[in-house]
Each structure stands twice: as structure tokens, then as C-alpha cells.
Amino acid sequence: MDGAGGQGLSDSSRHNLVRLKDEIYRVCYLMNQAGTPSAGDLRLSGISKQRDFSVTQEVLRAYGDVVKDAMRKVLWAIAAARQDGISIEVSGLDEFDIDDFGNELDDAKKLLDLGIGSETLKKQVFKNLAFKYLADARQEIKNQVAEEIEEGVGG
User: What SS3 state is found at 86?
Assistant: First the structure.
């Protein structure tokens, strides 16, 4: 029950937060050195967007580590209080879908414009886009949309 009585963050979480803080300072310094973009060209390159997404992924993973550690400690404390004698494992919160929906939409359009001629492919592309766009919608809504796509594509 090493985690039930411990306070604060685990060593790995503390290490991740220190590493992320250093990375944030480094990125801010590099952005400052690069100057500001000219008024005519405010678009980011694909590589720049990927770099931004990777930094965001790292921050979210570190946050996930902190949340998992807190959940683990709470569950250990509950198990100890109940004297359950069970093994507790907390996982997840390490992969996040933060891609730009506009890029995915463009990629899907390009794929469909190839004219592959597969109704199954079209249905899957449409459902994939719809589910990403409706990520926060209730499951009944997603099911209804999936049914409508199945019935409507190619018909």
C-alpha cells in the first residue's frame, strides 16, 4: 500500500512535469527567436502544426499521469479501508485525438476524389468523419447517423 499514504506526485509524474516545463520554456524561447509571422502569411506549415500537436500531446500525457496517480491513490485508500485485498491497476489517459479536423476533412475529400468506387470505403470515410465531428454527442445520435450513412451512401 505504498501509494495510499504517500503525498504529492510520484517520481515519474514529477519527472514528466519538470521535463515538460523545460520543453515549454524551450519552445517559448524558440518562438521568440523566430520573430512574428508577417501579416500576409499566418498559416502554419504541416511540420509546425505536428510539432505543436506533439507538445500538446506531451502536456496531456503528463496531466493524464497526474490524474492516474491520484485515481490510483484514491482506489488504494478505498481498498485498504474496505480491506478488500485486491490488486488495483489504473491505465489510459495517454492517447488523445487532437488532430485538426480540417486536415482530416481535406484528406478524406482527396481520398474520395480518387474515385476508388467502393461504397464500403465511402461509408467508412463518412462515418469516421461524422464520429470525429460528433465526438461529444450522445451514442444514440451517433448510432442514428451511422444508420443513415449505411442507408444513404450509394443509394
Answer: coil
| Residue range 97-126, pLDDT digits in tens | 666 677 788 889 999 999 999 999 999 999
Closest CA to 65 of 140, 29, 13, 137: 13
Are the C-beta atoms of residues 76 and 107 closer than 8 Å to each other? Answer: no
Helix (H, G, I), strand (E, B) or coil at 91: coil
Q: What are phi and psi of 92, to 5 degrees?
A: 100, -165
φ/ψ of 72, rounded to 5, equals -60, -45
Q: Between the CA of residue 103 and those of 48, 86, 90, 122, what are the distances in Å?
A: 14, 45, 33, 18
Regions of the chain short of the pLDDT cut 50 = 1-6, 38-42, 154-155
Residue 56 in contact with residue 95, Cβ under 8 Å?
A: no
Locate cell 481520398: which residue? Answer: 111
All structural domains of the chain with their residue ranges: 11-82, 101-152
**Please, what is the average pLDDT of the chain?**
78
CA distance 155 to 152: 5
